[in-house]
Design goal:
Order of helices and strands: EHEHHHEHEHEEEEEHHEEHEEEE
Structural class: alpha+beta
Mean pLDDT: 83
Number of strands: 15
CATH class of the largest domain: Alpha Beta
CATH topology of the largest domain: Antithrombin, Chain I, domain 2
Low-confidence stretches: 11-16, 334-347
CATH superfamily of the largest domain: Antithrombin, subunit I, domain 2
Shape: elongated
Distance between the termini: 36 Å
Helix content: 25-40%
Radius of gyration: 21 Å
């Protein structure tokens, strides 16, 4: 029998307990490096969303299947500790002000399939999952129903997450995690309508891109060991920041990427008067997480060796794990609009010019709970 895992994210976040922080960073770095192997363009990943969906599965796994899952996603070997952790975290997923944050889990169950009572209780109470019956045999209608739910939970940003070809009469479970974040910069940038800047995709080639810019006090650090500049831009609420990591040379991004663990670590920032220029950007990434997880040692779960005895007495294996992620960044934060920033009128020279005119890494971090999502921007011509 087949189990399908689907992950839909826009801007995504997780308010984690202390014990989750290091696993979050390690998992973020691991999957970044794996996605990098098969992606030579722009991309964005939501480690949190993948972490949640695989944690749901891990609590229904047994034997070697459970060991492989917990090791790959850096969870405790003790399932009770994992359950307790997510019970605490799940209560903190919904925020409507001063930014919008939502996280929703749903389990679609074949009409003839029975979930073990204990696993159902874990899914509902620890992960706040909804459970719905569905006819996977009518794959087109089932795909439409799942995709409609995902769209409703991501403000219509994620569309067609699941294809009808992924579903058939052998499918018994589809687990979906949908996450959405919408926020504005703590200090919005000025009206930059029509403003463009050169962006160097290589040392010799540049393209003009729509951009935003301004001047304000930001957390800034130049890491000489990594040969890169770090700049934090906070969202309203001061709980979420976007960090831009700009290599000193425009052909050295790959050196940074293979030290992604160090890039994601906290930096000894100082508040500096910074003049910034940055491209507006929008991207969507569709990731085959099955291949990523297999590279991280999760192999049994996708074969007849799989043991998901905690979910059902029937033989189950995971057929697919797919993540689709969307992000848009502009002068207001998450949506395009005009605003006036008094910082543009400063007359003295800024302490730092931060010109994001070549490929860079970016990530969103909750100030207490770690990495929310991570990606890279290397070519404006790639969506």
């Amino acid at each position: 029998m087949r189990v399908l895992l689907l992950i839909a994210t826009t801007f995504a976040t997780l308010f984690a307990e202390d014990q989750y922080l290091q696993s979050n960073i390690n998992f973020s770095a691991d999957i970044y490096k794996e996605v990098l192997k098969s992606n030579n363009g722009n991309f964005i990943i939501c480690p949190v969303s993948a972490h949640i969906i695989m944690s749901v599965m891990s609590l229904g796994a047994k034997g070697n299947t459970a060991k492989q899952l917990t090791k790959a996603i850096y969870l405790p070997d003790d399932a009770n500790k994992t359950r307790y952790m997510f019970e605490k975290l799940s209560s903190k997923f919904e925020t409507k002000d001063p930014y919008q944050l939502s996280c929703a889990n749903k389990i679609y169950v074949a009409q003839s399939f029975t979930i073990n009572k204990n696993y159902k209780e874990i899914a509902v109470n620890a992960f706040k999952s909804d459970i719905a019956r569905i006819n996977f045999g009518d794959n087109a209608r089932a795909a439409d129903e799942i995709n409609s739910w995902v769209e409703s939970k991501t403000n219509n940003k994620i569309k067609k997450l699941v294809q009808k070809e992924s579903l058939n009469s052998d499918t018994v479970l589809v687990l979906v995690n949908a996450m959405y974040f919408h926020g504005f910069w703590l200090e919005e940038f000025g009206n930059t309508h029509g403003y463009k800047m050169p962006f160097y995709v290589s040392k010799t080639k540049s393209v003009k891109v729509a951009a935003f810019g301004g001047r304000n006090d930001f957390n800034y650090y130049h890491n000489e060991e990594l040969s890169a500049q770090f700049l934090e831009i906070p969202f309203v609420g001061n709980e979420v920041t976007m960090t831009i990591v700009l290599p000193d040379n425009n052909d050295k991004l790959n050196r940074l990427e293979w030290r992604i663990n160090d890039v994601l670590a906290e930096q000894p920032y100082k508040v500096e008067d910074v003049e910034i220029q940055c491209p507006k950007f929008k991207m969507e990434t569709n990731i085959d997480f099955k291949a990523v997880l297999q590279s991280l040692g999760v192999t049994d779960a996708f074969t007849t060796l799989a043991n998901f005895g905690g979910i059902s007495d029937m033989d189950l294996l995971i057929s697919e794990v797919r993540q689709k992620t969307f992000i848009e960044v502009n002068e207001r934060g998450a949506t395009a609009a005009a605003a006036t920033a008094s910082s543009l009128s400063m007359m003295s020279e800024p302490g730092v010019f931060f010109n994001v005119n070549h490929p860079f890494i970016f990530f969103f971090r909750h100030k207490d709970h770690g990495i929310l999502f991570v990606g890279r921007y290397i070519d404006p011509d790639l969506y």
